[in-house]
């Protein structure tokens, strides 16, 4: 139990929030502000941006599902990886966020509290 | 171009709110997870809400929370979140022509609400229906998302504070990303970009300063571009 959090927080966190906020807003505003009349994304900007979502999302997901350990079995017999593969299959079949979370969490709990317990 | 009755709740605004409703099934759990992850990483309620209001971009919020919780350097936290949100430039460029006739102040306000969902819905609707008031339709969808996102974050903070750590509720974070990742891998180059980005991030997970995520993401983008170049 972590208990209800406090309120004010740390300067470190607030600096991160404000700087990320400014950067994100400037990305959102960029073309809406500057080039209101162009018809499409310039090729040189648009091409790399197309690969940002899959590359970034995978770089976020994979390390949370698998940690390289000495030995193949030690690496693969991980409830997070098993839950992730099950959830990935659901995401692929349904493209439904809620179903993906539900299946992933249930499989995680099944292996953590029953199979590997 | 304006609505039928000129009132606040006119037809175009309501159409935006109506069309965004099915997407809330994905947004609500995502917002709850953003709140749960924030409290789990030691953020306060004010920080969690501040993040949701000031940044208002789920994937980058979750990455920032994760890195803040593991005491990564500020530059890495900010750099990683910024890379994740770079895609907003693409949306901004794509939707800009539709907003070109509005006053600068209106465009500045509309830009704040720009999200994956508001962008995708609005551009699809503009192409289908030329009679829509563009800003009212967009506002109906985007502002609904904003309200649900903020409420979801607060509920997540309160709920997350009461659930034992052993349940591993923060595992819902990679599950949300997974649900977004699968449809993002829609052809050969994007699929390879994802596989390379994820694999490099796993191998580089031990890098100092939590740089693994950034290195993985950049590798994936570069290999995706190379794959595309080879396919032509």
TrEMBL record, chain A:
Transmembrane spans: 12-35, 56-77, 97-115
A Pfam family: AzlD
InterPro entries: Brnchd-chn_aa_trnsp_AzlD (IPR008407)
Keywords associated with the record: Membrane, Transmembrane, Transmembrane helix
Name under which the protein is recorded: Branched-chain amino acid transport protein
Species of provenance: Halorubrum aquaticum
From TrEMBL, chain B:
Keyword terms: Cell membrane, Membrane, Transmembrane, Transmembrane helix, Transport
Annotated Gene Ontology cellular component terms: plasma membrane
Residue spans crossing the bilayer: 20-41, 48-68, 74-100, 137-160, 166-184, 191-207
GO biological process, one term: L-valine transmembrane transport
First and last residue of the signal peptide: none
Predominant location: membrane
Annotated InterPro entries: Brnchd-chn_aa_trnsp_permease (IPR011606)
Subcellular location: Cell membrane
Protein name (record): 4-azaleucine resistance probable transporter AzlC
Organism: Halorubrum aquaticum
């Amino acid at each position: 139990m972590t208990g209800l959090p406090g309120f004010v927080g740390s300067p470190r966190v607030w600096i991160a929030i404000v700087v990320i906020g400014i950067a994100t807003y400037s990305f959102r505003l960029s073309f809406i502000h500057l080039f209101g009349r162009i018809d499409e994304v310039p090729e040189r900007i648009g091409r790399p941006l197309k690969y940002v979502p899959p590359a970034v999302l995978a770089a976020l997901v994979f390390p949370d599902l698998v940690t390289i350990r000495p030995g193949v079995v030690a690496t693969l017999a991980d409830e997070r990886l098993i839950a992730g593969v099950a959830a990935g299959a659901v995401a692929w079949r349904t493209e439904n966020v809620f179903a993906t979370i539900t299946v992933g969490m249930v499989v995680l709990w099944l292996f953590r509290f029953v199979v590997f317990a | 171009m304006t609505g039928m009755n000129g009132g606040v709740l006119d037809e175009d605004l309501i159409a935006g709110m109506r069309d965004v409703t099915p997407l809330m099934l994905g947004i609500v759990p995502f917002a709850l997870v953003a709140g749960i992850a924030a409290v789990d990483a030691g953020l306060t309620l004010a920080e969690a809400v501040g993040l949701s209001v000031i940044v208002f971009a789920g994937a980058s919020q979750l990455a920032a929370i994760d890195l803040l919780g593991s005491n990564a350097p500020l530059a890495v936290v900010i750099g990683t979140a910024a890379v994740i949100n770079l895609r907003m430039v693409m949306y901004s460029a794509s939707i800009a022509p539709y907003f070109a006739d509005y006053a600068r102040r209106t465009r500045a306000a509309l830009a704040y609400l720009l999200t994956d969902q508001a962008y995708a819905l609005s551009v699809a609707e503009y192409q289908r229906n030329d009679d829509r008031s563009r800003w009212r339709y967009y506002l109906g969808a985007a502002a609904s998302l904003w309200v649900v996102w903020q409420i979801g974050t607060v509920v997540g903070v309160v709920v997350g504070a009461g659930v034992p750590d052993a349940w591993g509720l923060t595992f819902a974070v990679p599950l949300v990303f997974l649900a977004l990742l699968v449809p993002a891998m829609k052809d050969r180059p994007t699929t390879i970009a994802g596989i390379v980005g994820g694999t490099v991030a796993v191998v580089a997970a031990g890098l100092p300063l939590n740089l693994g995520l950034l290195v993985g993401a950049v590798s994936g983008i570069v290999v995706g571009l190379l794959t595309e170049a080879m396919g032509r």
